[in-house]
């Protein structure tokens, strides 16, 4: 029996071998048995990915580096190369930012062993940095000018705090309200490791009894008043108040007639400076402690230095320190807050700054007034289900998403539209749970791409007010493909909606994801020359295209070799031939006519492809030990792209020409394959182990142009029970597979 198998949809990319007989699956008709170095399109085609441009070596060859995007705006982006104690910068076109004749760099405190674990988020010119180990204090990297950056510690103000003590029998007192004081506890409160930590102290009995500020009222010198829940004093002589109530929280401000000095909101903050013993330490007062002498007729303030802070059980230790650990993750939210995940001692707790409570060098975690009054704009602290489940990541995907070792979800108010407040916030589990790995997620389609617990696979979650929750297991049909543990995920939205995944073994994968079309098409992306991926990141170029950058590594001749690669733009119909970049690790030359090219020392001894003179001179050459190649005799180059050839390949699933299940497993012989290709110069078509038939590939005497072509090939494959066609090329041209029709002879 003769029949035809026609396929015009490859949007789902690879389908695992275990499902190769599952013709009943909805995804089957749009899948391939293998897909290499291509991008499955939402419209169904399978397009060769563009090549990678070699942007040179990182600073060190013997230690790892990390790529981190810097995104000030759509038109102001840089790629940061961070390695052993340094940060360097590159523009979107790959050029390093120079300081004189050398790459500009900033000294950092991160060893190369730490850079892979960095978490980050950005506000304007400030990049906030945390580390997932929770052992390194937060830092910031700030741009002041093109070659003027600073690196330093991130100040956290007014917190964040651990839970306030609830045992009234455990108290702490201070010898004074300002300056350097002695803290005395009635229990073993302190250790030597606590030097540098902060403590928040509140009055045992709340605010003192005093009048509220009122306008046009006579006040005595040093009289104490309450306003906006805070305490103020009027130094100087007796005066009549004005009309503007004091609401400030630092310094002295006039009410229109007299100045009021802020004293306290009912709480003070101290920082331990020296350890004496378990009940006694020395501390420096950062925010004035509350405590006053009250006269019989009016509340007045005497010198704070002469007043002690009476023993109180209302105290709280800071949430982060060398002893307790540091925040593991950071995210800037749409509520104008900054979120930090919990420390090593409280791994399941999240903290959010007060609204707008962050700047170029600080985060403000003001928790509310010491009197107990908490406003909606104040900081937030809350554990996720008791706080014992470690937070593995935070992601500002519209609402603030989180992942823990047992669940994933959203930190939200009563609804997604309501702002987060101290009284209205909760960690809501979405999707089916299951837990996450500690791999940083990628924000995509206002949701999150993440690696599930164990690190194998890829999932998506999104919380919406309309649909509730969207979730998808994107590795459902490619379990073998994602059998290696995921090391990182990045997202390139424009133009192809592609998630790029690299594994701990250095393999690179791509998945085109379009949730509205329920498409998640996978393809393998093996790099030539034995290169593996060590890090990846995405920034936007001047054309608005999201560009994938790779830090790649390989072992060559017993030595480690590291390079920085940037993906070229894919060729489109109408582009010039000088825009064709379909070689990996490639270098460019433009200039006077030459017969030799140099600067290829890292490729010494390897065969490279040369795409020269806009396609009129194409040849292979072996790079000499000096890093040079020579043109064929009598020829010269004025333009050239030189790099490593890489395979693009699409292979079908077992053919089923008689309808679902009719001829599966029967003896089959492919007689002819008709392949519809776009933007193509040449390709090879074959069946099984049969001979390959090459279409195109004419001598380069004329200038070839990629065009849409229909290849009709009599491939003459052997008879077998697993009939498949294959289309491939490793030359330096683009190619897009649109459809394949196979004529098959079947014997029952």
How is this structure best described in words?
The protein is mainly beta and 748 residues long. Helix content is 0%, strand content 45%. The protein is built from no helices and 65 strands. A 7-stranded antiparallel β-sheet has the order 31-19-20-30-29-21-32, with no helix packed on it. Strands 1, 5, 6, 60, 63 and 65 form a 6-stranded antiparallel β-sheet that branches. A hairpin with an 8-residue loop joins strand 43 and strand 44. It is elongated. The termini are close together.
Produce the secondary structure layout:
Blueprint (H helix, E strand, L loop, with lengths): L1 E6 L5 E2 L16 E2 L1 E3 L1 E3 L5 E3 L3 E3 L11 E8 L2 E8 L2 E5 L7 E2 L2 E2 L1 E3 L10 E6 L2 E6 L7 E7 L2 E6 L1 E3 L14 E3 L5 E6 L12 E5 L8 E2 L5 E2 L3 E5 L2 E5 L4 E2 L11 E3 L4 E6 L2 E11 L2 E8 L21 E4 L2 E3 L12 E3 L5 E4 L7 E4 L9 E3 L15 E4 L7 E6 L3 E5 L3 E5 L13 E4 L12 E3 L2 E4 L8 E6 L3 E6 L12 E7 L5 E6 L4 E7 L4 E6 L7 E9 L5 E11 L2 E9 L16 E11 L1 E2 L9 E6 L4 E6 L6 E2 L6 E8 L3 E4 L15 E14 L2 E5 L5 E3 L11 E7 L11 E5 L6 E12 L1
Parallel strand pairs: 2-3, 18-36, 22-24
Antiparallel strand pairs: 1-65, 4-59, 5-6, 6-65, 7-52, 8-9, 9-10, 10-13, 11-12, 14-15, 15-16, 16-17, 19-20, 19-31, 20-30, 21-29, 21-32, 23-26, 24-25, 25-28, 27-28, 29-30, 33-34, 34-35, 35-37, 38-39, 39-40, 40-41, 42-43, 43-44, 44-45, 46-47, 47-48, 48-49, 50-51, 51-52, 53-58, 54-57, 55-56, 55-58, ...
């Amino acid at each position: 029996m003769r029949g035809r198998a026609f396929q015009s949809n490859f949007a789902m990319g690879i389908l695992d071998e275990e499902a190769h007989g599952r013709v009943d699956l909805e995804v089957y008709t749009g899948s391939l048995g293998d897909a290499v170095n291509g991008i499955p399109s939402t419209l169904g085609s399978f397009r060769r990915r563009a090549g990678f441009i070699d942007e040179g070596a990182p600073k060190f060859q013997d230690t790892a580096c990390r790529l981190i995007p810097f995104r000030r705006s759509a038109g102001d982006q840089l790629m940061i190369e961070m390695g052993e104690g340094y940060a360097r910068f590159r523009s979107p076109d790959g050029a390093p930012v120079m300081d004189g004749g050398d790459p500009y760099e900033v000294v950092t405190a991160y060893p190369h062993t730490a850079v892979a674990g960095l978490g980050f988020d950005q506000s304007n010119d400030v990049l906030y940095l945390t580390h997932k180990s929770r052992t390194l204090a937060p830092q910031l990297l700030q741009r002041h000018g093109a070659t003027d950056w600073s690196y330093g510690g991130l100040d956290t103000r007014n917190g964040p705090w651990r839970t306030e003590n609830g045992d009234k029998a455990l108290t702490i007192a201070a010898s004074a309200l300002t300056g350097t004081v002695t803290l005395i506890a009635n229990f073993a409160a302190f250790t030597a490791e606590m030097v540098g930590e902060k403590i928040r102290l509140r009055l045992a009995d709340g605010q003192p009894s005093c009048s509220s500020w009122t306008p046009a009222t006579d006040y005595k010198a040093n009289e104490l008043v309450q306003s906006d829940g805070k305490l103020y004093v009027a130094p100087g002589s007796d005066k009549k108040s004005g009309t503007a109530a004091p609401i400030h929280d630092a310094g002295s401000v006039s009410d229109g007639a007299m100045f009021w000095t802020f004293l306290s909101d009912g709480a003070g903050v101290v920082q331990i400076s020296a350890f004496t013993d378990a009940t006694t330490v020395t501390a420096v007062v950062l925010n004035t402690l509350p405590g006053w002498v009250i006269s019989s007729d009016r509340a007045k303030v005497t010198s704070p230095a002469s007043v002690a802070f009476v023993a109180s059980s209302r105290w709280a230790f800071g949430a982060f320190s060398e002893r307790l650990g540091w925040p593991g993750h950071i995210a800037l939210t749409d509520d104008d807050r900054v979120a930090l995940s919990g420390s090593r001692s409280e791994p399941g707790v999240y903290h959010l700054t007060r609204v707008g409570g962050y700047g170029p060098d600080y985060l403000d975690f003001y928790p509310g007034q010491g009197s107990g009054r908490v406003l909606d704009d104040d900081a937030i602290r809350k554990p996720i289900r008791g706080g014992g489940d470690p937070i593995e990541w935070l992601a500002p995907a519209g609402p603030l998403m989180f992942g823990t070792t047992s669940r994933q979800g959203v930190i939200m108010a009563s609804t997604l539209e309501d702002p987060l407040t101290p009284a209205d916030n909760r960690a809501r589990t979405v999707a089916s749970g299951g837990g996450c790995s500690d791999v940083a997620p990628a924000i995509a389609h206002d949701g999150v791409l993440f690696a599930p617990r164990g690190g194998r696979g890829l999932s998506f979650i999104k919380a919406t007010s309309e649909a509730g929750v969207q979730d998808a297991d994107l590795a459902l049909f490619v379990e073998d493909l994602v059998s290696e543990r995921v090391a990182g995920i990045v997202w390139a939205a424009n133009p192809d909606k592609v998630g790029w995944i690299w594994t701990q073994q250095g393999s690179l994968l791509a998945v085109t994801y379009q949730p509205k079309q329920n498409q998640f098409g996978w393809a393998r992306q093996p790099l030539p020359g034995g290169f593996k991926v060590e890090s990846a990141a995405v920034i936007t170029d001047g054309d608005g295209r999201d560009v994938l950058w790779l830090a790649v590594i390989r072992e060559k001749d017993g030595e480690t070799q590291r390079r920085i690669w940037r993906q070229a733009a894919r060729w489109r119909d109408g582009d010039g031939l000088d825009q064709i970049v379909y070689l990996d690790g490639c270098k460019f030359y433009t200039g006077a006519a030459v017969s030799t090219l140099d600067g290829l020392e890292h490729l010494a001894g390897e065969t490279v492809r040369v795409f020269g003179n806009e396609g009129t001179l194409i040849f292979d050459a072996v790079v000499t030990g000096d890093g040079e190649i020579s043109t064929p005799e009598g020829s010269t180059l004025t333009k050239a792209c030189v790099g490593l050839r890489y395979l693009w390949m699409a292979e079908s699933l077992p053919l089923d020409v008689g309808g679902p299940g009719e001829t599966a497993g029967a003896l089959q012989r492919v007689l002819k394959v008709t392949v519809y290709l776009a933007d193509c110069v040449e390709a090879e078509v074959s069946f099984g182990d049969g001979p390959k038939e090459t279409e195109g590939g004419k001598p380069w005497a004329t200038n070839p142009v990629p065009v849409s072509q229909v290849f009709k090939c009599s491939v003459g494959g052997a008879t077998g029970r697993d009939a498949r066609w294959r289309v491939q090329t490793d030359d330096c041209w683009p190619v897009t597979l649109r459809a394949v029709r196979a004529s098959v002879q079947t014997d029952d």
